[in-house]
Amino acid sequence: MAVNETVKYGIIGVGMMGREHLINLHHLRTQGVVVVCIADPHLPSQQLALELAKSFDWPLKVFSGHQELLDSGLCDVVVVSSPNMTHYQILMDILNHPKPHHVLVEKPLCTTVADCRKVVNAARKRPDMLVQVGLEYRYMPPVAKLIEIVKGGTLGQIKMVAIREHRFPFLVKVNNWNRFNSNTGGTLVEKCCHFFDLMRLFAGANPVCMMASGAMDVNHKDEIYDGKVPDIIDNAYVIVEFDNGARGMLDLCMFAEGSKNEQEISVVGHTGKGEAFVPESIVRFGSRMEGRDRVQTLKTENRLIKYEGLHHGSSYLEHLNFLSAIRVKGAKTPAADLNDGLISVAMGVAAQLSIEKGRFVNIEEVLDEHNC
Fold first, then answer.
1. Backbone angles phi, psi at 320, to 5 degrees
2. Contact at 8 Å (CB) between 129 and 102?
3. Which of 259, 296, 304 is nearest to 280 (CA)?
4. Which of 10, 29, 91, 288 has its CA 20 to 30 A from that of 183?
5. Where is the Gfo/Idh/MocA-like oxidoreductase N-terminal domain (predicted)?
């Protein structure tokens, strides 16, 4: 695709996150980007997206289903931001469609490892398509800076990665789909695939086994939908062992609105330690040799960000990166590829299984490593 050629986008699923993508893409209009069509069976979501697009002076063709959008031939790129449990069928329909569409699919890739693997295998047969997974926490400025520090060797060989997310409960979604494990894959898949992905990046390794403890202790206990009480956990501790000897730990609490930072990340190597704080956008790092008095504190920013949005500008940078990958097809691969998506889901599934079984779960129980 030529650098100056207009790239036409379609968005499948225009709920909260789909509309967030629409706004991000509007802020990329100077890069030759336009959204031309949307698909969503939910009329209120359609209407909200249409009102947004009208304010951008972007006329949209509206479809109730993704297949009609694909068959229209209107777009070159598809953003999949529909509910988790719909990703598998939508992705398979895109990958099996005669017209190639590059794809940015929201996390999690799918809700099960088996479905993720089928998508990976289908994508191998379509070298004419790029598929990127929406693991955009990599792009948050403080996280990106900490990744850069780690990759630069400042902290030495990474031994421990601890990520704390203390936040608000799950938001209300269309038809309350995110209240049930069967729709989301479970909280540790739905929410925490982001953090498992970051652990892999920081550790520079793949998971071997996981141990988790968690429950639904506070949120959603008094909610009933179609006669069913939600079953999504709202807090957990997860321990991860990696194949290079590094260890990871996740501390998740979703009834912790009284937190200064939503995410706190600590990465410790054999020679130093680094930390990132979101939304303070601060990074701290220091060495064992120089000690506490010489710890550096940086306020991070990325001047490329034109829209902060719901994720501190990371979605904007994700789109910028994806657009670049599309335009130099063959010379560049997506930053977060299907394998990253698959393993982040497998880690979440293993953690959910560990809670259910009350024991360590080998990653091979949920993922055949030879298929990675």
1. -60, -45
2. yes
3. 259
4. 10
5. 8-134
> Same domain, yes or no, for 176 and 291?
yes
Which residues have CB under 8 Å from 364's CB, separation 6+? none
**How many of the other CB atoms lie within 10 Å of CB of 360?**
15
Structure tokens at 300: 């991070």
264: enclosing H helix or E strand: strand 263-269
Overall domain count for the chain:
2
- Look-up of token digits 């030879």: 370
The CATH number of whichever domain residue 100 belongs to comes to: 3.40.50.720
Per-residue pLDDT tens digits for 314-354:
999 999 999 999 998 655 678 899 999 999 999 999 999 99
Output the pTM of the full model. Answer: 0.95
Q: Kindly tell me the burial class for residue 146, based on how many C-beta atoms sit within 10 Å of its own C-beta (0-12, 13-18, 19 or more).
A: buried
Residue linked to tokens 């069913």: 228
- The pLDDT score that the predictor gives to residue 1 is 57
Helix or strand or coil: residue 299? strand
What is the mean pLDDT of the segment spanning 213-219?
A: 98
Per the CB < 8 A criterion, the answer to whether 236 and 204 are in contact is: no
Residues 6+ apart with CB under 8 A from 356: none
Burial of 51 (0-12, 13-18, 19+ CB in 10 A): exposed
108 and 163 inside one domain: no
Segments forming the whole domain that contains residue 322: 7-136+315-336
Using 50, 70 and 90 to split pLDDT, how confident is the model at 296?
Answer: very high
Cα separation, 106 vs 324, in Å, equals 18
